[in-house]
């Protein structure tokens, strides 16, 4: 099995160990499969070039994903040193680890899917065993969890044959960790900030997906207290420009204040 946390420098491995130390400490956690475990936003190809242009040239800092957030599909262009999935549903991170391991153990997207099918059939991971109870067969799972995402991300998706080698190379160079945590727990944000600042780390890229729609825009104000790179990109869901019944579109902000103002406007119709 591929090692997703091997080969990094001592300072980075120490930082990731402390970050992983937050796992399971800030509940309540809830392992669930009744909802997408990967990205369900659309429109990434529309904003990708602008997002990439805004990011720093030098590789530094952390990429945070609350939810799946199309992390691996976007990874080749992200100048980050590590990926961290943070979610109150541990299955989100676990399924993404299964995907990352399968990509690294594969030569083609089709081989990746075949490996996932094998792991699903034998119930190799808790998340796959749980998904067995939800889906009639593996093809239903792959459609609901990956193929819809592939349609939304188009040529940027990890399963695109031209994109796949770039995604695999990025995964080889970028450690991935998961942190099960409820971000609304009042003790979580100070603990995350402490880990980041004590290791002189910043957030270079974040995808907060549609979490503000679930917990409320006000509950996302904790991000004001986290250290962000001055050229950070913050992606999130927006219903602006989406037709009735469509998935939300992916938007991005270049600052925390811009992000908070937009989700507040979505929630109330007025900026804070």
- What is the β-strand count? 6
The number of domains:
1
Helix content: 40-55%
- In DSSP terms (H or I, runs of 4 or more residues), the helix count works out at 11
Alpha-carbon distance between the two ends: 48 Å
- Give the biggest beta sheet: 6 strands, mixed
What is the compact description of this entry?
This protein is of the alpha/beta class.
Topology:
Blueprint: H1 10-20, H2 44-54, E1 62-65, H3 71-74, E2 82-87, H4 90-104, H5 109-122, H6 126-134, H7 138-153, H8 164-173, E3 176-180, H9 188-198, E4 203-207, H10 211-215, E5 228-238, E6 249-253, H11 256-268
Parallel strand pairs: 1-2, 1-4, 2-3, 4-5
Antiparallel strand pairs: 5-6
Helix pairs in contact: 4-5, 5-6
Structure description:
This protein has helices spanning 10-20, 44-54, 71-74, 90-104, 109-122, 126-134, 138-153, 164-173, 188-198, 211-215, 256-268; strands spanning 62-65, 82-87, 176-180, 203-207, 228-238, 249-253. It is α/β, with parallel strands linked by helices and 272 residues long. It has one domain (10-268). The chain has a six-stranded mixed beta sheet, with helices on both faces. Strand 1, helix 3 and strand 2 form a beta-alpha-beta unit. The model has no long low-confidence stretch (mean pLDDT 88).
